[in-house]
Amino acid sequence: MSGIDREITLETRISLIAKHLPGTQKAESEIESEGIVHLFNDRETMERVAAEIKLRGERTGEDDIEDNYERYGLYFSEPIGYILKADGSRIPLNYGEIKIKKNTGKYHVIPRTKPRTSY
């Protein structure tokens, strides 16, 4: 089965959204402190990725009982975002992930290189 078959709601903490959008203070702060940030191309892309994952995403990390999140992801044929490094270099990203907090059903979406595999 694919997609998310239950009601989930968008996380209201602005920082989790802003962290993955270019030009935001949170993204700038992330690049300064970590030297790297994973960004969507823009907000419209982020919203489209979330909608597609809800419809067709595959569940990942099902057996990790210590992870506070359920994770669903999907590969896209064209880049949905990029990794931006402090030196200005960019790496395209074609994978999107929705992280759903297990105890609240609130989610946020992240551009990634691939599904999370280390637990």
Characteristics:
3 helices, 8 strands, five-stranded mixed β-sheet, alpha+beta, 119 residues, three-stranded antiparallel β-sheet
Polypeptide structure, described:
The chain is an alpha+beta fold. The protein is 24% helix and 34% strand. It contains 3 helices and 8 strands, in the order βααβαββββββ. A 5-stranded mixed beta sheet has the order 1-8-7-4-3, covered by helices on one side. The chain has a 3-stranded antiparallel beta sheet with strand order 2-5-6. The longest helix is centred in the middle third of the chain and has 14 residues, at 43-56. The two termini are 23 Å apart. The mean pLDDT is 92.
Record field, number of beta strands: 8
Average of the residue pLDDT scores: 92
Q: Number of DSSP helices?
A: 3
| Major sheet strand order | 1-8-7-4-3
SSE order, one letter for each helix or strand: EHHEHEEEEEE
Give the % helix: 10-25%
- Ranges where pLDDT stays below 50 over 5 or more residues in a row are none
Estimated share of beta-strand residues: 25-35%
Radius of gyration, in angstroms, nearest whole number = 14 Å
N-to-C terminal Cα separation, in Å? Answer: 23 Å
Largest sheet: 5 strands, mixed
Class computed from helices, strands and strand pairing: alpha+beta
